[in-house]
Design goal:
By secondary structure, this protein is an alpha/beta fold. The protein has 22 helices and ten strands. Strand 9 and strand 10 form a beta hairpin.
Length: about 500
């Protein structure tokens, strides 16, 4: 584990009987003095602040001769900087060396307080000083705290136990300090960074993966925020982009790396800000916004199908809702999706341009059918006069009132003009229209929960279908219809990658 020189650090350290200096009897019988673990970590990593934790026994030792705080003062003078020292707790209740619960709770509160006070600092944990219960509690906290800490182990100079109850008899800290071998230039560090994977982060990552697979990106993001220090720099932005995508805020996803990683359809900022329920025509704000955005881009940078990028993304959103079993949203999504699919079929593929050439705008910009314009369009495309009159009658009735352009209009046009083998998408659109009418109307007017059984039962009643049309069947019908929508040269009008959300999920999980 790397610890760059320019990083600011805080050390949290219990103190034990081997701190601050150790007395070591060498094989030849001579005495050698070395740093204890707490002091040696400070010598190696140079923390700005050292928070010392005392049991009652160690607190009495500090009160007697200030050995712990004075040793840090001496080390600071030797290294040429002032070490701030904080002692915890003010009054220790830790009388039992094995009191694991007390240590765990105390340590967690203190370390969280350090984190709050020093959010930009690297937090070092001394897991070599103190009692076995202290060391265990501290190591477990390193594994379960939601933020990153760095446990440090220090080997004893002779790789065996030593004690410091000899210190006062040897003349006190100042006298022994002169003999400290670790104060010599170029002394070898005995510190070892403990390599570990934070268990809390590991379990949280597992939960995040499950939430991603369930398309619950908001919940996954909330969990990720709790352990963001244990994640790559990409995870949070990727999850935030997934939340925006699921909420149809496509204009917020501006990072090209994320767009490529998610395999997003080409919606464009202008398209994503417009409602998919508004038909696209030369004079409507949706199309104007797109053209304005497109004109600012280099020539050749737009690919075919950009105008339908929002529709493609909307259909992928519906698929995601169906998989999540968010049936109410799925049902509500049928109306704008079906309208745009019908418009693509009639206005784009067949070229009737009903919205563009057959409508006038109300004061609020709503497209209204103009009977004379519609008659002109039909006279050029439909030779059969009786068929033209029948269609006009369905669209306008006996009166000459204007009708708002909606799914009903396109449904009647498709029924009369394109419901044959030459137009394989037509039967599916007509079927979807009947399902949408029956399901949407009841869903909009009933206070009730919506599940897949209700969708199937309601759709069956409306369509008189022998096979129940649950959400999966509806989605398959949409996919089949989209697949059949092709230009004269055989290219798909809506080249949707139906695995786009799964590709996004894989991209996010690969960052964990």
């Amino acid at each position: 584990m790397e610890h760059p020189e320019n990083v600011r650090r805080v050390l949290f350290s219990p103190v034990g009987s081997t701190d601050p200096l150790s007395k070591n009897v060498l094989e030849d019988g001579t005495i050698a003095h070395h740093d204890g673990s707490m002091l040696h970590i400070c010598r190696t990593y140079k923390p700005e602040l050292v928070v010392l934790y005392f049991s009652q026994e160690m607190q009495r030792a500090e009160a007697a001769d200030h050995r712990y705080t004075e040793s840090l003062q001496l080390l600071g003078e030797e290294l040429g900087y002032e070490i701030e020292v904080r002692c915890e707790p003010k009054e220790s209740f830790a009388t039992e060396a094995h009191d694991y619960d007390l240590f765990y709770n105390d340590f967690e509160n203190i370390i969280r307080s350090i984190r709050d006070d020093c959010p930009q600092h690297e937090i070092l944990l001394n897991v070599s000083s103190g009692t076995p219960s202290m060391k265990t509690a501290l190591y477990l906290l390193a594994n379960y705290l939601p933020f990153k800490t760095h446990p440090i182990q220090v080997a004893t100079p002779l790789k065996k136990s030593n004690r410091s109850d000899w210190l006062q008899a040897a003349g006190g800290l100042a006298e022994v300090w002169k003999k400290n071998a670790d104060s010599q230039p170029n002394c070898e560090s005995r510190c070892t960074d403990v390599e570990y994977e934070n268990l809390n982060a590991r379990m949280t990552k597992r939960s995040i993966r499950k939430l991603i697979d369930a398309y619950d990106y908001a919940a996954a993001l909330a969990l990720a925020e709790d352990i963001k220090e244990h994640l790559s720099s990409k995870t949070i932005p990727y999850l935030a982009a997934a939340v925006d995508r699921a909420n149809q805020n496509w204009d917020r996803i501006t990072d090209q790396e994320i767009v490529d990683a998610f395999k997003l359809p080409k919606c464009g900022d202008a398209l994503s800000r417009a409602s998919t329920t508004i038909p696209v025509g030369e004079n409507n704000p949706f199309a104007k916004a797109f053209k304005k955005a497109a004109s600012s881009l280099p020539e050749g940078s737009l690919e075919a199908g950009d105008e339908n990028g929002a529709l493609s993304e909307y259909l992928l959103w519906m698929q995601m809702k169906q998989k999540r079993e968010d049936y109410a949203d799925f049902v509500r999504g049928l109306t704008p999706a079906l309208f745009r699919l019908m418009q693509v079929a009639v206005d784009d593929i067949e070229g009737l341009k009903i919205e563009e050439a057959g409508c006038e705008r109300s004061e609020k910009g709503v497209p209204k059918l103009d009977k004379n314009k519609i008659e002109s369009i039909l006279s050029k495309r439909v030779q059969d006069k009786s068929k033209r009159q029948r269609l006009l009658s369905k669209l306008f009735g006996k009166e000459s009132q204007q009708r708002t352009l909606n799914s009903y209009v396109y449904d009647k046009i498709i029924e009369e003009l394109f419901n044959d083998n030459d137009h394989p998408w037509a039967s599916d659109l007509i079927k979807l229209r009947k399902i949408e009418e029956s399901v949407r109307n009841q869903a909009a007017h009933e206070i009730r929960g919506i599940d897949d059984h209700w969708i199937a039962t309601t759709a069956e009643t409306g369509t008189q279908a022998k096979t129940p049309y649950d959400s999966a069947h509806i989605l398959e019908t949409i996919k089949r219809c989209v697949g059949a929508m092709k230009t004269e040269d055989g290219k798909r009008v809506l080249p949707i990658d139906w695995k786009s959300y799964d590709a996004m999920n894989d991209a996010i999980k690969n960052t964990l």
